Amino acid sequence: MPDHAENGIRTFPVIIQGGDTRLAALGRAGDEFVLVLAQDAARKEETDSGNGILTSLSVLVSEDPFPGLTMDGRQMIWVKNYSENAGLLEQLEQARVLRPTGSTIPQGLVRLPMAVVVPDESEMAHRCALDGCERFESVETAPRFKRCSLCKRRYYCSTEHQHAHWARHKKDCKDLTAGRYTQVEQRRRAQDELPAPARVEELAEGS
């Protein structure tokens, strides 16, 4: 069952591909949801980059990249449920991390389920938004990362990184504040500042 670290991050055990159980947290990197190792020591030992990412959970579907919010303000996402994520949604539903809505959308060779993100913002492990930082909050992070006081959608591991990112973030801040996440994602792809997410069809064919 889920638990909470002293800093508020919600943790839960997951069985990853291969049968190993890991203590994980729901992470958010910008507008992407991922599963991350909860502890710093495990991140350094078990991931090449040290950022602790176990797998990506959300998929930005071209027709409907951001399905919207529930009546109580919780975000809904399309969930990657194939390849290394096979069986993961069921675990996350049992851990009360994701709640499937029953809706699906066809994408190439797969159907992606829609799910509600259950944890609150304060219960997630957020990644620093500065390009190249890659650092996620962990159960040891104290104090927690700072976040933009306007959009409340971008987090920073330090004041220096927040200031360094402002020149880029100010272009997106207004849209994020208004919930126009699709416009922000389209701008990101058009600027080609980061690799565009892999097409679902390509991922499914390679699974």
UniProtKB/TrEMBL annotation:
<dbReference type="GO" id="GO:0008270">
    <property type="term" value="F:zinc ion binding"/>
</dbReference>
<dbReference type="InterPro" id="IPR002893">
    <property type="entry name" value="Znf_MYND"/>
</dbReference>
<feature type="domain" description="MYND-type">
    <location>
        <begin position="130"/>
        <end position="173"/>
    </location>
</feature>
<keyword id="KW-0479">Metal-binding</keyword>
<protein>
    <recommendedName>
        <fullName>MYND-type domain-containing protein</fullName>
    </recommendedName>
</protein>
<feature type="region of interest" description="Disordered">
    <location>
        <begin position="186"/>
        <end position="207"/>
    </location>
</feature>
<keyword id="KW-0863">Zinc-finger</keyword>
<dbReference type="Pfam" id="PF01753">
    <property type="entry name" value="zf-MYND"/>
</dbReference>
<keyword id="KW-0862">Zinc</keyword>
